[in-house]
Amino acid sequence: MAWIYLVVAGLFEIVWAFTMKLSEGFTKLGYSAITLIAMVISFGLLSLAMRTLPLGTAYTIWTGIGAVGAFVAGIVALGEAASPMRILAAVLIVTGLVIMKTSS
After folding, report:
1. Up-side HSE of residue 10: CA atoms within 13 Å toward CB?
2. pLDDT tens digits for 8-58?
3. Planar angle of CA 30, 7, 50, nearest 5 degrees
4. Taking a C-beta distance cutoff of 8 angstroms, is the pair 90, 71 a contact?
């Protein structure tokens, strides 16, 4: 169950990062509210996952899901650049996540 909590926490991290961008520095109330709610859910689920998963594993997986997910959301939804070096960086993050998961 901890892994499910962790993955869902990572997905909510993507939501809050994306809506934080859309909030334009917390000047748009709706996006600001979604950001804060998603943060609370994300941190809450991360804390549940950390009851049984090692700190390093849980935190690394959580931030990795958020980082790569926000990267993809930025490209797909916001038209941000998808340069070869940025894609390579995302691939390296995913590779690190796979190694972390298989080693725990």
Report:
1. 21
2. 999 999 999 999 999 999 999 999 999 999 999 999 999 999 999 999 999
3. 105
4. yes
| Six token digits for residue 53 | 């998963």
Residue entry with tokens 């993955």: 7
Q: Contact at 8 Å (CB) between 58 and 49? A: yes
The one-letter code for the residue type at 11 is L
> Which residue ranges make up each domain of the chain?
2-103
Work out the angle at residue 56's Cα, subtended by the Cα atoms of residues 17 and 16, and round it to the nearest 5 degrees.
10
pTM comes to 0.89
Buried b (16+ CB within 10 A) or exposed e, 53-90: beeebbbbbbebbbbbbbbebbeeeeeeeeeeeeeeeb
Distance, in Å, from the CA atom of 73 to the CA atom of 96, rounded to the nearest integer, reads 20
Query: What is the Cα Rg of the chain in Å?
Result: 14
